């Protein structure tokens, strides 16, 4: 099948042949991993990097006429808020593409809107308030410390560090101000939910396969908050030093596992996700499930979290990527 892999690039002049050299040289990038899997499955693959301009992207797609676009775009011109717009452009030009629709991408990026929708569907989320840049953050009295302050529209733990957790109004105001000034967007302030941190990958549409649950475990906390800060997620050296690890969650009773699967399935559909996604949640000591956020089009790199969970479920990497293709081709929304 003709499949175009469309993704963000730092090389505006590169063409398909340039990327294919990198793929052969075994360079590790999520889009190259995906392309290698598609080759292995016998597909005719065109690599299309999106840089500063959309016109060359549309030209290349127009000339190739793919049956499917594998959407690996995470941002446009360095701005992740445009992620949904790339899906919109594909949709407007009549291409079938993998992953979530513009609605899913737009809504799930907004941590406040997401929580409002999940609440409507009976899913437990942390109590929260949103503060716009021009507002003085006055904490609603029902919002109890400790609180965590995050940028409203980022992901990958951007803007999240140990200092994100605040214990009093003074620190709250300072951290909200920091978010406004640094990220030029609203801040969301949530009650800090103590508990196990779990990540649940899902594949499918009308029926969803729930992948084995991954847990982020923290070593000795040494007074630090057990949260997935930017460093805890991405800094390998720091992770080693602090004994922060992704493992498969152990010791969940069938009942709790079923409750988690049910919550995540509801969240996936409630937020208009398609084909594949990941739900981040917290499980409290008394087995309450709180959804922290829902991620459409999660990171697909080889040996990363979602791929490892798929592998554990018996889907090797090539089969996992092919499954996403199959799901995108089978659904009746193009
Ligand atoms: N309300 C909360 N209670 C406890 N931990 C939280 C809360 N919100 C965020 N965190 C911690 O911060 C991490 C990143 O927050 P999240 O909302 O998932 O943002 P991102 O989109 O950047 O991944 C979470 O994985 C979790 O460890
Ligand atoms: Mg998250």
List keywords for this structure.
334 residues; Dna Ligase, domain 1; D-amino Acid Aminotransferase, Chain A, domain 1; 3 domains; six-stranded antiparallel sheet; four-stranded antiparallel sheet; 12 helices; 37% helix; globular; binds adenosine-5'-diphosphate; binds magnesium ion
How would you describe the overall organization of this protein?
- The protein has three domains: about 1-95; about 125-190, ATP-grasp fold, A domain (Dna Ligase, domain 1, 2-Layer Sandwich); about 195-215 and about 250-330, D-amino Acid Aminotransferase, Chain A, domain 1 (2-Layer Sandwich).
- The protein is about 35% helix and about 20% strand.
- It has twelve helices and 13 strands.
- The strands form three sheets. Strands 8, 9, 10, 11, 12 and 13 form a six-stranded antiparallel sheet that branches. A four-stranded antiparallel sheet has the order 4-7-5-6, with helices on one face.
- The longest helix has 17 residues, at about 255-270.
- The two termini are about 15 Å apart.
- The mean pLDDT is about 95.
- Magnesium ion binds near residues 280 and 293.
């Amino acid at each position: 099948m003709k499949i175009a892999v469309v993704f963000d690039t730092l090389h505006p002049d590169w063409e398909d042949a340039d990327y294919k050299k990198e793929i052969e040289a075994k360079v590790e990038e999520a889009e190259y991993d995906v392309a290698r899997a598609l080759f292995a499955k016998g597909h005719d693959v065109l690599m299309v990097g999106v840089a500063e301009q959309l016109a060359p992207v549309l030209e290349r797609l127009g000339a190739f006429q793919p049956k499917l676009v594998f959407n690996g775009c995470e941002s446009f011109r360095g701005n992740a808020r445009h992620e949904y717009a790339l899906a919109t452009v594909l949709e407007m030009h009549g291409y079938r593409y993998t992953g979530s629709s513009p609605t899913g991408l737009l809504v799930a990026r907004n941590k406040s809107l997401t929580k409002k929708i999940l609440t409507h569907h009976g899913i437990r989320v942390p109590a929260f308030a949103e503060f716009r840049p021009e507002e003085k953050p006055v904490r609603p009295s029902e919002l109890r410390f400790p609180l965590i302050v995050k940028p409203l529209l980022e992901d990958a733990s951007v803007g999240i560090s140990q200092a994100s957790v605040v214990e009093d109004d003074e620190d709250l105001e300072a951290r909200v101000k920091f978010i406004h000034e640094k990220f030029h967007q609203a801040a969301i302030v949530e009650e800090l939910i103590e508990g196990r941190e779990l990540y649940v990958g899902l594949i499918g549409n009308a029926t969803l396969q729930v992948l084995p649950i991954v847990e982020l475990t923290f070593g000795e906390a040494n007074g630090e908050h057990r949260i997935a800060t930017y460093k805890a997620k991405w800094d390998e050296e720091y992770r080693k030093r602090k004994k922060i690890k992704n493992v498969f969650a152990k010791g969940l009773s069938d009942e709790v596992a079923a409750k988690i699967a049910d919550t995540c399935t509801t969240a996936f559909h409630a937020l208009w996700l398609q084909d594949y996604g990941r739900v981040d949640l917290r499980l409290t000591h008394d087995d309450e499930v709180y959804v922290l956020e829902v991620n459409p089009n999660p990171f697909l790199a080889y040996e990363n979290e979602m791929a490892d969970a798929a592998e554990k479920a018996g889907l090797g990497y090539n089969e996992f990527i092919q499954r996403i293709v199959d799901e995108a081709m089978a659904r009746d929304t193009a």
